[in-house]
Amino acid sequence: MKQIKTIFITLLLTLSANAGWKPLKSLEHYGSKAFTLKKGVVYVELRKYSKTTEMSRLPTVTKNTSVALRIYQSAPRNMNVFSRIPLKEQYAIKKGKYVGLGGSSSWYYNGFMLDSKRKTWRLENIMDVVDMVKPIDTPAELSLVLWLNSDAGEKAEKYSAKYRKSGSGYVVREHHVSHEYNGWKYACGEYIFEYKINVSGKITQKKLIKKRKFKVCGGRVMCSYKNKFEEKI
């Protein structure tokens, strides 16, 4: 009887811990209609640029690699309306870098907006982008806020996120695992972060609730000294 009671209590605690949580899908899963643009905004586009530098010291090459997100209520007549606006890394709303033996590559995103008077604008920072869709009241908009503030979805081998309502905002948990040795701060380990996000799209709290470093990473043996992991030579 004691064993059955223990199993029952464990089951109740598990159900209680998972109550209210819903999966938060990746940004590319959501279509344009999953977002609501603020009044006066017709079209928003986030464009990705990549830069590659070889060890041979060849000139750095920068190119537009993809459009990460398009948001519109009705498709604009010209989808290349922002093509004449120059790319500028100084206005990157998000950036990252990969380091390898043959060189390095980095990427960054620029954001653009078309208003109802057909005038184009550059979105210069994260909150400029969030302002286009706030208040945050759909999973797509919540996913956008998380994506803007975290690069784990693009760097981790395994990635998932979930959310639940909390007061007038949300709690989001982000779980990622990476076995690669690529210079990323959260490589070679498993992490779970918890975010508190309000309806204005601001992260009011971020905390690490799980951290597990791997001893073997990318074929390299790692040594731990006072919780710092270094490559074993």
Give a written overview of the molecule.
The chain is an alpha+beta fold. The protein folds into two domains: 109 residues, no CATH class; 95 residues, no CATH class. The protein is 16% helix and 45% strand. It is built from four helices and 13 strands. A hairpin with a 2-residue loop joins β7 and β8. The longest helix is centred in the first third of the chain and has 17 residues. The C terminus is likely disordered.
Distance between the termini: 55 Å
User: What structural class do you assign from the helix and strand content?
Assistant: alpha+beta
| Number of E-type strands | 13
Largest sheet: 5 strands, antiparallel
Low-confidence stretches: 5-17, 223-233
The amount of helix comes to 10-25%
Q: Over the alpha carbons, how many angstroms does the gyration radius reach?
A: 21 Å
How much of the sequence is in beta strands? 35-45%
Number of domains: 2
The average pLDDT value, as a whole number, equals 80
Give the helix tally. 4
The gross shape turns out to be globular
Q: Could you spell the SSE succession in H and E letters?
A: HEEEEEEHHHEEEEEEE
Q: Strand arrangement, largest sheet?
A: 1-7-8-9-10
Task: Write a concise synopsis of the structure shown.
This protein is α+β, with helices and mostly antiparallel strands and 233 residues long. It is built from four helices and 13 strands.
Question: What features would you highlight for this structure?
Answer:
233 residues; alpha+beta; five-stranded antiparallel beta sheet; 4 helices; disordered C terminus
